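Researcher: Please translate sequence to structure tokens.
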Amino acid sequence: MVRPDVVLHAFNWKYQEIIDRLGEIKEAGYGAILIPPPLYSDVHSDHWWQCYQPKDYRVLLSHLGGKKELEELIKQCHSSEPQIKLYADIVINHMANEDRGDRLDFPGEAELANYRHNRDLFEANKLYGDLNEGLFSGFDFNRTGNIQEHEWWDRERVIYGDLSDLPDLMDSPWVLLQQRTMLAALVDMGFDGFRIDAIKHITTRMIDNFADSEALAGSYLFGEVLTTNDEEERIFLDPFLQETWISAYDFRLFQTIRKAFEMGGSLRKLARPENENNGLPWDRAVTFVVNHDLPHNDDFREFLLEPRDEHLAYAYILGKDGGLPLIYSDHNESVHRYHQDHDRWYDAFKREDIKRMIRFHNEVQGKEMTMLYESDLVLVFGRGDCGLVAINKGGEHTSVEFSTHCLKKSSVYKDLINNNEMTISGDWFTLSINPRTAQMWLCQSDLAVNDGV
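Model: Translation complete:
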């Protein structure tokens, strides 16, 4: 079996909690974990967005934990068999929005005094550098003001403007050196890769500065190029794909999934998305059904799938070939504003349907995907000669007939999601699918011995 690669986004989890739950994470079949930004942020605030406002590159400390816990987490992940990779979310577009007179000095005079007063604490959590000195000053920022509503289609303004008063770093030699040094130090600690936050807001020069650095050779890099329509893809995503080599969240596929599952949409759009420019190239895509921005931001909540469609969409991204699937699992952070979110993604990482889908994904990794049946409401495709995925988004029971040319004949298959069994024989087969359900079948001879999942 190919090495597990599904990424768990442990959103806003404390590092010690991840350490304590590594057994559960491994048992669920994950191959990697994405943690929130570890750079120094306000330790007295547990708001999820606080980690996205760094105060200093040279310190690893937040309300989620510090350097000691991170070192232990890396050690535990890498001592697992098979090894679990650890990715860190990194913010390099901007620094924290702080209400103080020297708001463009980082970490600022008050924080430097705090370093001196609590020297042992900050030296223990130091990543690199001399904490007696400041890191950035007003000379290190693009001072062009906030991006205005009418400017969100202007790529230059999106790159050089401020996001909601967050000081926007320029790509000067000093800033680039600090970013390169910070990421190299994280690699030395043992991090296997990085998600680059708000990457459509930074210059290609800033991206190339770390992406092409020798220290990061071998690291997995992916960025958040947040787009919601074809025009934004043309302005931001297409240049990113042309000008860089790193991977990205597959917002293009996500929008295709969303439209396919909406009323009047067609699942045919998901049959060959990459060929029809409805998804990123298979080797540059981080696929997802929900990410942390969608539940927490008013502007993006309209893009959330209905819970049942979310289940079906997970079957699709974990059943299909290509892309690196990411599973979002939170602690009800969005419930404070949106009560309907209660327990929707809480501990989603170990939800039984998700675990069964990951098991299917791990079993069929690298096996060819063959489309067997497609209509507006139903999609059926094979994975190699031992896997079969069926999705019915419609509200009625349906039966579909398809050729079995790519599957093992006269073999018993087990549906991992619903725990049913069937025998496939002959050149044609008729499959029955209940309304609003997905099936993921594996040939019994290819199933692991433990049938409990």
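Researcher: Any highlights?
Model: The first helix runs from residue 15 to 20.
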